[in-house]
């Protein structure tokens, strides 16, 4: 009976095995084992992100990564699959079986969560040329989602992995058989993964790209351009860039993809000839109807990379961004503002719209993001009024949330804009002072000087920071200042000294800045504007009772282009009558002193007549000293027909008819 049962079992086993070829059977076993081995790497990624495994955390990061990314690999499966996946094996298999054998590699590649996972896979497979390119690209893409620390550990593992050198050797041998897109993607992957530019494999790829450059299509050139952005200019890179410049110029009329055009523009960079930049500008303007919102944002940063200012193109991009501010993420919006600063491009409507948009959803942004926005607005000399009001309220509500770096940045921005917070001003400044007091023990001397300087610009004088700054122990540290920082340091000390001397703040005990840290008090004098000097003499030609002095230095610090001394308007007739009667003239102290100051546009907040920090303090101090400041810009003197009348109206307003002053001009107030 038992013999019959045994024979029956054998018969059914042979019948079952006859239905599957040995190749199919091995493929089945291999597929199952690959799927089984995919779990450890996924489990490792989960543990790394959530820190749930105490065993993993107790190990060094490198050893724990290696343990989880290589678990469960068997040499028997490796030997079986290498035969099936080799090009020689593929050519001898039917097409259906070839597609089945390819499926495990591509499926498992998608599930690899680190470069080491990919290298483990290549150790068991013999990937084709196309698969090698996919492996390098996937290895790079997995690192983009990691934190900086995790990325460093993974890349360290990658370089130590024995399969990495084998993969690079293999890709170097197959470089001549690669499609152009795979060639570009492989090079980009290696560069992004940190393979040294001087290595043989990278240099081989660069030379191969040079040899086949004419065969690259628009997409391949775009990928190659992205790669060259990250390479230094050695002989092969320079030759490749020059070749690409010629090809881009020749193929420019045929480019149809906006992103490809932008990538090539970035590649050509600042060294591109102006004529080629103009051609690229024309091509971009012809494609503006294809610009998506990301295209417009990227185009502005692309022009900044090229160092090319195209107002028509910038205006088109600005208009699209203004109309679609809602939903633009922080990184893109911040990059747009930074690019505008690099290009010296300021669109008042765009900057105002961004400021109001940020202020309207300020609770969504982190404190760090808002501080970065304020900083880039300050670099643009644009006062974001709505944002400054909203952020001041948040600081008053929770001042302790500011780090020392945030505090120094906020002080710099608010003092630079000289913005009047009205009823919030005192409360805001007191909140900043309390935070500053908490950081005093850990601040360096120069950080303390910057904080006190910006508070003095704001007209606020907290006693604790001032006393600590002017202690002899603190001042001694400035004696070791590097020469390049010395002029800036002296200027800040001189400003603090003037604020204390002229504004006389009520302090618990008087403090002064010792002369030893003030340096040379006389400012460097720029040459007087010849037009201003000539026009002032013309204006005062028929004013016998007025006196003109040019290039006057006040308090050994403030330079005034011209000081005009004239009697008060209501005493002119009295003076004349007294002179005829033999009476003495009124004392000089009763005379009016008008300080005419030639001011560049950078002295004002963009789009307004509101003077910025140092200029605002200068005006404040000149008023204390009894001067009437009159600010004159180059724009005011551009019109030859009107500049004389303009100066006469600002200096002798009593001689004017009742014509109103141009609206919004408060520079003389």
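Sequence proposed for the structure above (669 residues):
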């Amino acid at each position: 009976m038992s013999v019959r049962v045994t024979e029956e079992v054998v018969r059914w086993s042979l019948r079952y095995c006859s239905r599957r070829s040995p190749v199919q059977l091995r493929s089945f076993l291999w597929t199952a084992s690959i799927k089984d081995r995919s779990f450890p790497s996924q489990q490792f990624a989960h543990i790394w992100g959530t820190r749930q495994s105490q065993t993993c955390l107790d190990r060094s990061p490198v050893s724990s990564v290696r343990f989880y990314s290589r678990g469960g690999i068997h040499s028997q499966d490796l030997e079986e699959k290498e035969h099936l996946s080799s090009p020689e094996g593929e050519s001898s298999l039917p097409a259906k079986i070839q597609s089945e054998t390819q499926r495990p590699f591509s499926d498992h590649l998608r599930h690899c969560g680190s470069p080491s996972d990919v290298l483990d896979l290549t150790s068991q497979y013999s990937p084709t040329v196309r698969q090698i390119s996919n492996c390098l690209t996937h290895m790079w893409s997995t690192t983009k989602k990691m934190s900086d620390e995790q990325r460093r550990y993974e890349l360290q593992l990658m370089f130590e992995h024995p399969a990495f050198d084998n993969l690079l050797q293999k890709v170097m041998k197959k470089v001549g058989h690669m499609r152009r897109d795979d060639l570009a993607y492989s090079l980009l992957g290696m560069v992004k993964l940190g393979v040294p530019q001087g290595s043989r494999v990278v240099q081989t790829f660069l030379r191969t790209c040079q040899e086949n450059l004419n065969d690259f299509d628009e997409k391949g050139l775009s990928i190659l351009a992205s790669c060259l952005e990250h390479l230094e200019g050695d002989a092969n890179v320079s030759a490749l860039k020059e070749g690409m410049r010629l090809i881009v110029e020749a193929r420019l009329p045929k480019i149809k993809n906006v992103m490809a055009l932008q990538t090539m523009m970035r590649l050509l960079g600042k060294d591109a000839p102006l004529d080629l930049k103009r051609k690229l500008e024309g091509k971009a303007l012809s494609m503006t109807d294809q610009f998506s919102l990301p295209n417009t944002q990227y185009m502005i940063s692309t022009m900044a990379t090229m160092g090319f200012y195209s107002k028509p193109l910038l205006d088109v991009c600005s208009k699209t961004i203004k109309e679609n501010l809602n939903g633009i993420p922080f990184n893109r919006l911040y990059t747009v503002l930074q690019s505008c600063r690099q290009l010296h491009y300021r669109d008042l409507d765009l900057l105002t719209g961004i400021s109001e948009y940020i202020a309207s959803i300020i609770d969504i942004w982190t404190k760090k993001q808002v501080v970065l926005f304020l900083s880039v607005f300050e670099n643009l000399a644009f006062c974001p009024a709505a944002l400054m009001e909203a952020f001041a309220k948040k600081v008053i509500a929770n001042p302790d949330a500011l780090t020392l770096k945030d505090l120094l940045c906020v002080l710099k921005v608010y003092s630079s804009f000289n913005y009047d917070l009205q009823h919030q001003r005192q409360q805001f400044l007191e909140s900043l002072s309390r935070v500053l007091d908490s950081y005093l023990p850990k601040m360096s001397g120069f950080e303390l000087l910057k904080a006190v300087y910006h508070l003095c610009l704001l007209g606020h004088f907290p006693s604790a920071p001032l006393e600590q700054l002017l202690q002899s122990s603190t001042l001694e540290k400035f004696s070791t200042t590097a020469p390049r920082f010395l002029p800036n340091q002296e200027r800040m000390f001189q400003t603090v000294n003037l604020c204390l001397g002229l504004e006389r703040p009520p302090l618990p005990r008087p403090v002064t800045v010792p002369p030893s840290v003030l340096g040379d008090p006389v400012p460097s004098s720029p040459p007087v504007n010849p037009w201003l000097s000539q026009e002032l003499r013309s204006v005062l030609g028929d004013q016998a009772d007025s006196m003109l002095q040019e290039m006057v230095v006040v308090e050994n610090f403030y330079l005034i282009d011209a000081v005009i001394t004239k009697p008060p308007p209501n005493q002119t007739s009295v003076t004349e009558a007294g002179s005829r009667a033999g009476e003495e003239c009124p004392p000089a102290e009763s005379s009016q002193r008008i300080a005419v100051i030639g001011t560049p546009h950078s002295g004002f907040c963009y789009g307004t007549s509101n003077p910025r920090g140092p200029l605002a303090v200068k005006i404040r101090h000149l008023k204390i000293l009894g001067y009437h400041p009159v600010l004159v810009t180059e724009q005011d003197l551009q019109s030859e027909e009107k500049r004389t009348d303009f100066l006469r109206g600002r200096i002798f307003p009593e001689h004017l008819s009742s014509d109103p002053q141009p609206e919004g001009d408060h520079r003389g107030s």
